[in-house]
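User: My advisor, Dr. K., asked me to get a structural model of this assembly before our group meeting. I'm new to this, so sorry if the format is off. These are the inputs:
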Amino acid sequence: MKLATLKDGSRYGHLVLVASDLSRVVSARSIARTLQEALEQWVKNEPRLRARSDALNADQIDGSIQFTANACAAPLPRAYHWVDGSAFLNHGDLMQLAFASEPIPDFETIPLVYQGGSDDFLGPVDDAPFPSEADGIDFEGEYGVITDDVPMGVSVDQAARFIRLVVQLNDWSLRVHGQREVKTGFGFYQAKPATSFAPIAVTPDELGSSWHEGRVHLPLNVELNDEHFGNPNGSEMRFSFPELISHAARTSRLRAGTIVGSGTVSNVARDAGSACIAERRAIELIDQGSIKTPFMKFGDTVRMRAGAPEGPWPFGEIAQRVVPLDA
Amino acid sequence: MKLATLKDGSRYGHLVLVASDLSRVVSARSIARTLQEALEQWVKNEPRLRARSDALNADQIDGSIQFTANACAAPLPRAYHWVDGSAFLNHGDLMQLAFASEPIPDFETIPLVYQGGSDDFLGPVDDAPFPSEADGIDFEGEYGVITDDVPMGVSVDQAARFIRLVVQLNDWSLRVHGQREVKTGFGFYQAKPATSFAPIAVTPDELGSSWHEGRVHLPLNVELNDEHFGNPNGSEMRFSFPELISHAARTSRLRAGTIVGSGTVSNVARDAGSACIAERRAIELIDQGSIKTPFMKFGDTVRMRAGAPEGPWPFGEIAQRVVPLDA
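Assistant: The format is fine. Below is the predicted structure of the whole assembly, which you can bring to the meeting.
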């Protein structure tokens, strides 16, 4: 089952079901007004959503309209909880090797996560406004999951069953702020402006054999200014989503609609490229002795699609342009 | 004007107005179902809420019921954005002096903030469940504000006008996790379980002369197991709430219902005591050479009231007991 949220001029958006081939969408408002509402009573809502989705896919429903990414907000236009991991340890290894930063304690054994801002997500093709090119504007291609209510202290084994949806996202990062904030110990804040999401949230079954061991086994194709930048695969995630959820629920229960991110997708093989500029810069420094790739400028674009380059793309695509705040 | 949210068995709660003397409450649902909804259209809702509040205070309204803290959730039972500062620099100075930690860069000039979890706040007299006494269970008495929509890049001068409500809160902290997490650079996550709030959110005018220069000039009386622990005054906040808001909105706009915290209230004068155990332990180590006060055990209680010891307490009071998760 594929779900999306259409922009409707409100802060909430309009929940829709999306056909498997991304051709059509149909309102799901008769079942739940928003995706947040759908998640808050998932056990009750899921069968009704699936029935309507099946009817849409069988072309047995009235009122469907054409799907366009332009019409979409993030699947959850805002959320009460957004916790992002850094579960591809290759990414961390490269950053540490390149920039000779202090080793992070317990890096290999305890998942590294940060609490993200979640009141104002960007849609898949929304322009991304930033105050200054000097901030080190970077994208981060990631996968994520959305949970049901999760009890405090949940085990890794139990955590998988609280995963309701899988998403794809761009965790915009401002590296200059990040360098300063990481040194305070208090973590990222100004370094992490509004995160963007691909238009479609899918139930795990929708990914077929690409979803197993709590990971998305799909390449994430990233293009910077319409040129290939990388296509690392989600399979190399060291900590699985159930492991991240169990870590996140160690001292708090998580409430329905919690989004848990993987961190930048990253592979050991150099020919996979990267899903963020900072990692490519680290590789350039390690392999070639100097940094060649600049961070983004106003007018630059980034595109991210999971799956085969020619499709299908189960989450749709992210295609954004960086713009100055005043524009 | 005083607002609160009554528990009603849902995730949302029921918005009420509270009489100035905290004697009675009356539903505000005819104006807005929840405080979040009220904030999202504050300019439209505020005059109607004030008219109903005035009628309540003049005893000219039907359907009011007695106020009890037991019936209250946090004013916002959950929020889309919770950013907590560490704006009482005396607290940071003491921690650094006692534990010889690395100096935090730009500590005196750039506000230190962390992004908090916001999907599951505790009410003022809710038990606080934790998995282990070994985690270093501690309270942190703070003030906070709730904002309207704030544009990205707002100046300090402009920020004050986006403050809609003032709150009092207990930012529960697990110090053992905090010590580990601060070293990762990614900031607090397991160290910051669900935050608790005093029952009443007030408009700034309700605080009279105690609200000026963007600070709450009131002592915060803290009792641990019914014994005086401290009564530091909010006046020594180095960065004001407008300064914290301007910092928070540097690279993102803030959406209505954003909660901005002061960090642990802390005063230079030793006889003010402390609003968290960690600070008292730091003072013990500095002044007496050894730590005497343990962190909290299951069954311990904490009480926090802003204002004169005998009242009135504009935010009501926080009175919580620490309990094991399994209970």
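One thing worth pointing out at the meeting: The helical segments of chain A are 35-40, 42-57, 89-99, 156-159, 175-184, 241-248, 277-288.

User: Perfect, thanks a lot.
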